Automatic annotation (TrEMBL):
It is found in: Cytoplasm. Binds 1 [4Fe-4S] cluster. The cluster is coordinated with 3 cysteines and an exchangeable S-adenosyl-L-methionine. Its cofactor is [4Fe-4S] cluster. It catalyses: coproporphyrinogen III + 2 S-adenosyl-L-methionine = protoporphyrinogen IX + 2 5'-deoxyadenosine + 2 L-methionine + 2 CO2. The gene is hemN. Its EC number is 1.3.98.3. It is an enzyme of class 1 (oxidoreductase). The lineage of its organism: Bacteria, Pseudomonadati, Pseudomonadota, Gammaproteobacteria, Oceanospirillales. Gene3D superfamilies: 1.10.10.920, 3.30.750.200. Pathway: Porphyrin-containing compound metabolism; protoporphyrin-IX biosynthesis; protoporphyrinogen-IX from coproporphyrinogen-III (AdoMet route): step 1/1. Keywords: 4Fe-4S, Cytoplasm, Iron, Iron-sulfur, Metal-binding, Oxidoreductase, Porphyrin biosynthesis, S-adenosyl-L-methionine. It comes from Isoalcanivorax beigongshangi. This is Coproporphyrinogen-III oxidase. Belongs to the anaerobic coproporphyrinogen-III oxidase family. The keyword 4Fe-4S applies. PROSITE patterns: RADICAL_SAM.
Length: 457
């Protein structure tokens, strides 16, 4: 399809934010206080907003050489218990200031690898969450967890389902044994297949598979084979991420032999073929690097205009207050972003003193708010009605964004967007470069500042 035009990918595939927030986290500063966080929780109570909970468990048993996440690699399971104890302290501290009637419509446990915790620890964390917060029964909430196929079994999946999780995200990355060996993530296809089958048997309603392209020894042909095998697993959603090789920033990536990495031209062929294959397999591009089946909740939400975006990526519950727990986690409470300390010692010290472990954050002003709304509307719905937008925000939107709309001319000429004076639409060809469209309306980004981010495509 025209969406996978290699010329457009090359022209607009530069660097830019992922827009899990606006402004991006690079704008966060250290002037956010404990009182700011308390005030934001109180505002959410007054507005009776629903809740989305995120638990960050940073531990991994094995190091993956491509990884750029905030994680701790260790085989020493004794480290898990003191972390869990501090996590429970944070939950108790924050829950005391949150109206217990606010429903938890979404919950996600990420990392690292949350299943680094053993069965008893997972059970304890979930039970304490249910005691402190209003979890929904009968599968009415969207409760997901990231799992490493190397460290879970069918019985562990059964436990997770029994605890109330109904969504799984598997870190597949690649199914070629040579690629797996090169990135130190060996997980045979048969193992992943068995886990997928168990997950279906246990009634998980959505299964996501993460893939990465640009890894050592990958090629257009090998990635196509991985996608063919993945088709047999029949995931509901697929994420296809671009590997960014930055060994100067992420020391573990120095374990990768750069001579085995695919060339930029090969990566371009990999992406275009993969995108076309996924569409032929029945998946639709939600945006950026996320694909979903047409009957998946994300695809349905995009069609009916309710799709949102937050620090958990595309979401069905972007209007909920996102409360983060654990080292480096980010909360989004109305107009406040607040990120926890990135070092475990700092995080634990704050909580031992009964203080919120906020390290940095950002409070949006009115211009930030309306630009966030505009950017998220474009990235989720692929269109924006300027007249309706202006009425909502009580502004003359066409005049307010006169300079930005004028800057869209090159994108209009290349067919990425259409604009009739009222309705701005991202075309089928433009969907893959939607972040480039969003950047036009980002007052914090310039070609110079954009280089700190990953590539758009």
């Amino acid at each position: 399809m025209s969406c996978w035009n290699p010329d457009i990918i090359k022209r607009y595939g530069g660097h830019g934010p992922r827009y899990t927030s606006y402004p991006a986290a690079s704008s966060f500063h250290e002037e956010i206080t404990d009182q700011d966080y308390r005030d934001a929780l109180a505002d959410g109570n007054n507005a009776k907003r629903a809740l989305s909970l995120y638990m960050h468990i940073p531990f991994c048993e094995h190091v993956c050489y491509y990884c750029a996440c905030n994680r701790i690699v260790t085989g020493d399971k004794r480290i898990a218990e003191p972390y869990l104890e501090t996590l429970l302290k944070e939950m108790t501290l924050k829950s005391a200031l949150i109206d217990s009637q606010r429903p938890v419509v979404q919950m996600h446990w990420g990392g690292g690898t949350p299943t680094f915790f053993d069965d008893a620890q997972l059970t304890r964390l979930m039970h304490q969450t249910g005691r402190l917060f209003h979890l929904l029964d009968q599968d009415r909430g969207d409760y997901g967890i990231e799992v490493d196929p190397r460290t879970v079994t069918s019985s562990r999946l059964s436990l997770l389902r029994g605890l109330g999780f109904n969504r799984l995200s598997f870190g597949v990355q690649d199914l070629d044994p040579r690629v797996q060996q090169a990135v130190n993530r060996v997980q045979p296809f048969e193992t992943i297949l068995a886990l997928f089958r168990s997950a279906r048997d246990f009634g998980f309603r959505s299964i996501n598979a993460d893939l990465i392209y640009g890894l050592p020894w990958q090629s257009e042909t090998s990635l196509a084979r991985t996608l063919e095998q993945l088709g047999a697993l029949d995931p509901d959603r697929i994420s296809l991420y671009n590997y960014a090789h930055l060994p100067s920033r992420f020391k573990v990536q120095r374990q990768i032999d750069e001579t085995t990495l695919p060339s930029p031209s090969e990566k371009l062929r990999m992406l275009t073929r993969a995108g076309s294959m996924l569409e032929e397999m029945g998946y639709q591009l939600i945006g950026m690097d996320h694909f979903a089946k047409p009957d998946d909740a994300l695809a349905q939400a995009q069609r009916d205009g309710t799709l949102c975006r937050n620090f958990q990526g595309y979401s069905l519950h972007g209007d909920a207050d996102l409360v983060g727990f654990g080292v480096s986690s980010i909360s989004q409470l109305g107009t406040l972003y607040a990120q926890n300390a990135r070092q475990i010692d700092d995080w634990q010290m704050s909580l031992n003193q009964a203080r919120f472990p906020v390290r940095q954050g950002y409070r949006l002003d009115q211009d930030d708010e309306l630009r966030r709304d505009l950017i998220m509307t474009l990235l989720c719905g692929m269109q924006l009605d300027l007249e309706q937008f202006g009425q909502h925000w009580q502004i003359d939107a066409a005049n307010y964004f006169r300079a930005e709309l004028d800057s869209l001319r090159p994108l209009l000429a290349d067919g990425l967007v259409t604009f009739d004076g009222r309705l701005l639409q991202i075309t089928e060809m433009g969907r893959l470069a939607a972040r480039a469209v969003a950047m036009v309306f980002d007052r914090y980004q310039t070609p110079q500042t954009a280089t700190r981010f990953s590539r758009i495509i």
